[in-house]
Amino acid sequence: MTETVELPVSREHGLELLREMLRIRCFEDRCYRLYGETKIRGFLHLYNGEEAVAVGAMRSLRPTDAVVSTYREHGHAIVRGIPMPAVMAELFGKQTGCSRGRGGSMHLFDASRRFYGGNAIVAGGLPIAVGLALAQKLLRQNDITTCFFGDGAVAEGEFHESLNLASLWRLPVLFLCENNLYAMGTALDQAQAETDITTKARAYRMAAQPVDGMDVLAVETMVSRAVDEVRTGCGPMLLELRTYRFRAHSMFDPQLYRDKAEVAQWEKKGPIITLTKRLKALGLMSEDDYERCERDANAEVDAAVQFAEASPWESVADLERFVYAGPVA
Amino acid sequence: MQVEFHLPSLGADMESATLTEWLKNPGERVRHGEPLATVETTKGLIDIEAYDDAQVLEHLVQPGTKVPVGAPLARLEISGAPQAPPPSVPSQPPAAPAAPAAAATTAAPASSAKTAHARISPAARRRAHELGLPLETFARSAAGGIIHVADVEKLAPPVASAQGDARAAMRASIGMAMARSKREIPHYYLSHAVDFGPARDWLIGHNAPLAVKDRLIEAVLITKAVALAAARIEGFNGYFRDGRFESASAVHAGAAIAVRSGGLVAPALLDANQKDLPTLMRDFSALVMRVRAGHMRSGEFTAATITVTSLGADGVDVLFPIINPPQVAIVGAGAIREQPWVQGSQCVARPVLTLSLGADHRVTDGRLGARFLRAIAELLAHPELL
Amino acid sequence: MEPKEIQTKLLALLTGVAPDIDPASIEPSKNLRDQFDFDSMDALHFATAVSEAFAIDIAEADYPRLASLEGAQRFVEERLAAR
Amino acid sequence: MPDPLPDSRSAMSYRDAVREALRSALIADPRVFLMGEDVGRYGGSYAVSKGLLEEFGADRIRDTPLSESAFVGAGIGAALGGLKPIVEVMTVNFSLLALDQIMNNAATLSHMSGGQFNVPLVIRLATGAGRQLAAQHSHSLEGWYAHIPGLRILTPATIDDARFMLAAALACPDPVLLFEHQYLYNMEGHLTAGLEAVNLHNAAIRRAGRDVTLIAYGWSLHKSLAAAEELARTGIEAEVLDLRTLRPLDEQAIIASVRRTRRAVIVDEGWRSGSLSAEVTTRIVEQAFYDLDAPVVRVCTAEVPVPYAKHLEDAALPSPDRIVAAVRTVLESSGSP
């Protein structure tokens, strides 16, 4: 685990990180409610507890870098810069959604921000990330591809095939494994003979490091170092971000696989509480700052919901549009 | 601000849940995100959390009761500004109109380029063979249309077999046409009661000086009224073929005539809207005679653009007739019977006729149907104009 | 004209107007409408035939008298007798 | 200096034609590269890419580990990233390991992303039976892939199509699967004089006729042409239609031909149930029902895992004799032609 030496932070930088994490937290809580009111349907995988990973990681990427995500992707999408109204409209299935209402929660896309979407097939995104990096290398672009995936993906064949191919061809891929200890209802130690995921990457001669996924400063520091290294062309790297999800795997999950005490214990060292305690201890922020950040976040979410409510449905006449990009007959 | 807390939907396929335990009782405070109650779902126990900081005022549901998603569970007093209250009406996508033909269903075969052969279904081809009818007989009369078994059987030559067979054959062919009509045509029905008094009085006056052979019967007045209305209001006179309505300029009113050997035929009174009553009566009389004599002209069969049917004096008050395809409307005339009728503030006995309309909802709708029936009633109220 | 002669004449007139009726199956006393779907046009044709064959005028109000063969028989006998 | 393109009008094999297609594509566009198992040093499992590694280097002729899901997925990613990959899946049998990437990513991304990400990727797959490779190496699954919206499915069966379909496929902004029947690699023939390109939309009448339409693709085309010759000796003129594209199907060509001959026999190396021939039959019944003088007849592979023994494999597969027999049944059930 990263040394717990206190990483330097300024008031302005600290509040920026806190604001970003609160934007995600308020967005996800509102989604929980909107799902209860049947405004959002289908599958919904909320990101509460893992905000530090998205906020810490995304800040070190350039706009031209490529990002590949998973179905627990609201945090990645929002911090990558996809406007909250476009994300909420997508969850409502509206035409103004970032995928025109066709993808939903698990398939948010944004070509202008090189956000290549969530993927509902566990580990389905890893080969895509390898390919994007292959193109970056062959086209001599000085960009990298960051690939988010969960601990569940580590059991898939595509994880091993992709890490081997990326390492064999020394491709600029940064594999970010969000290890939240549960693959849906299966704890990591029920699924993996070797639970230290970094060792799997080293088996493919790939540098790998564990990171405290609850400490946004640690995540930011480690990821920015890894990004710079991968950008030099030395080949891919893997970071195992050890984190925890406070909510169920998805909406309809009575969480029989873990007890409430464990959740409560992790909530005490959640990413937002950890940062807030630290900034207050350093005298860099007050409770008013916290309430203002939270108020601003909720206001942004309110506006996003209003936008989604008012947006039009896509016309059924466009049902088959975009199946092909080019002329067919 | 007081609000009701409703059972949230926790999954796409969750319809209801049973409240097992209140975690907050009336008077207690709950923070936003804190569990308020536990419910039993098909997947197990799930805690449902409050959306806002609030105080519990009242439990509306007791533990052990099963409630549908959205049912109110408790009344809360929200402290501080609540989050944007959700609008009451959940906006659902508009019911998808029938998917454009391009999607799942493939378009019915449009009438393709004129092929050498008439378009005859294999079943019709085999039936024609069985009835000894050469295919050429259909090629002409089916220009553009498709020949089905029913079309073949309709023109089957009168079979010389015993009357029983003829009756069965006629009944079968009418049955098939009616079955197809019921299957393909989305009927809607309307009825309208009419004071037939004025028409009847006019008829008695008109017939009084005339010899028996020149007298008119009530059916002729009704048929003329229907024909005039059909000429005036669009959508009831013509054919529905190959997916579209073809309005007919002329009005050939099919007159339903009971056939003693069983069934009903409705040969056409040609240009019924243009002929005066005596001429129409003569045509009608000749038509009945030909039906009685059993040698009908096939042309008269297929010419009708709308049909009028009634069961005569000993019939019933209202008919709900089936459209003769490919027509798009049929008017029924019930038995004319003395019935109570309100006139001003009095209730008097009047000879009441109930008109009914069966029409094709692909072409018209109830509003237009009502205008059509009222137009007929209006004409019958002024028989001198017929 | 003898009653028998009137009866055979009426039968001939009826089958003339409704050739599709089997004369043997006609029950003289029974209402023609119930026996054979005799509609208002048939009734008018029958009344016309009777009026011309026996040269008697038949008012509309008298049509019900011709509802059955027997009824017609009595009606014709009365009118001929009154002449 | 790479040796110049051989005189394209002299006799060449189907394999040579595909190799020339690859070479001209690699020369024409620096974004084009070939990726697949043993395409480089080994020269390709069917020797199609022999010599390309030496000519274009390891960056553009990339041998891959046996990781179909990963390298097909990487092909999709590279296409999204601005390259023009040609991924060779050694045979359609191994494509089952990459079906998730092909179906859930390649075919779906454009529609699911609201048109933001199209996937200009070409996948070449050898297909079909006939070499006694037994069940696991003899599948013919073109019909499966032709079921998926978002993909274009091509079956080059002639020297011309083998030579020129690839260029048209590379110009297409959507994922294209090119099925090369393994039995055809050794087939010899000539390129049509003056032909520089082919389109991807039309079926082609390879032999005109008036009495029956034989509809086929891939190796079945050549079996149908042999059957047509045999039928001609008995006075029956069969029209032979090469589908060339299985998705989208060239409905106009199929319906026009069946309207003329009034009878259709479809030859499909897939298994009958839910096969491509079932789809073609349905389209004929939907659009030319009143023009048929007899029900459509299909000649397909027997519904068995393709056996190893030659006499069993031959009995299972469509053959000229079975096609001739099918034509006779179609003619009998509709009276003399």
Textual characterization of the structure:
The complex is a heterotetramer of chains A (329), B (386), C (83) and D (337). Chain A has 329 residues and is α/β, with parallel strands linked by helices. Chain A has a single domain, classed as Rossmann fold, CATH 3.40.50. In chain A, 43% of the residues lie in helices and 10% in strands. Chain A contains 11 helices and 7 strands. In chain A, the strands form 2 sheets. Chain A has a 5-stranded parallel sheet, sandwiched between helices. In chain A, strands 4-5 form a two-stranded antiparallel ribbon. In chain A, α1 packs across α11 and α4 crosses α11. The model of chain A has no long low-confidence stretch (mean pLDDT 94). Chain B is an alpha+beta fold and 386 residues long. Chain B has 3 domains: 77 residues, OB fold (Dihydrolipoamide Acetyltransferase, E2P) (Beta Barrel), CATH 2.40.50; 39 residues, Dihydrolipoamide Transferase, CATH 4.10.320; 198 residues, 2-Layer Sandwich (Chloramphenicol Acetyltransferase). In chain B, the strands form 6 sheets. In chain B, strands 11, 14, 17, 18, 19, 20 and 21 form a 7-stranded mixed sheet that branches. In chain B, strands 1-8-6-3 form a 4-stranded antiparallel sheet, with no helix packed on it. In chain B, α6 packs across α9. The longest helix of chain B has 22 residues. With 83 residues, chain C is mainly α. Chain C has one domain: Non-ribosomal Peptide Synthetase Peptidyl Carrier Protein, Chain A (Orthogonal Bundle). Helix content of chain C is 58%, strand content 0%. Chain C is globular. Chain C starts with a helix and ends with a helix. In chain D, α3 runs parallel beside α5 and α9 packs across α13. Chain D folds into 2 domains: 178 residues, 3-Layer(aba) Sandwich (Rossmann fold), CATH 3.40.50.970; 128 residues, Rossmann fold (3-Layer(aba) Sandwich), CATH 3.40.50. Chain D is of the alpha/beta class. Chain D has a 7-stranded mixed sheet, sandwiched between helices. Chain D has a 5-stranded mixed sheet with strand order 9-11-10-13-14, with helices on both faces. In chain D, strands 1-8 form a two-stranded antiparallel sheet. Chains in contact: A-B, A-D, B-C, B-D. Chains A and D meet through α5 and α6 of A and α3, α5 and α6 of D.
Q: What is the correct CATH architecture of the largest domain in chain B?
A: 2-Layer Sandwich
Task: Write the CATH architecture name of chain C.
Answer: Orthogonal Bundle
Strand percentage of chain B, roughly?
25-35%
- Which CATH first-tier class of chain C would you pick? Mainly Alpha
Shape assignment of chain B: elongated
For the record, what CATH class of the largest domain in chain B applies? Alpha Beta
CATH topology of chain C: Non-ribosomal Peptide Synthetase Peptidyl Carrier Protein, Chain A
CATH superfamily of the largest domain in chain B: Chloramphenicol acetyltransferase-like domain
Q: What global shape of chain C is seen?
A: globular
- Give the tally of β-strands of chain B: 21
* Total of domains of chain C: 1
Mean pLDDT of chain C: 85
Tell me which protein chains meet in the greatest interface and how many residues each side has: A-D, 49 and 45 residues
Helicity level of chain C: 55-70%
Tally of alpha and pi helices of chain B: 9
N-to-C order of helices and strands of chain B: EEEEEEEEEHHEHHEHHEEEEEEHHEEEEH
Strand content of chain C: under 5%
Report the structural category of chain C.
mainly alpha
Beta-strand segment tally of chain C: 0
Provide mean pLDDT of chain B, rounded.
81
Largest sheet of chain C at a glance? none
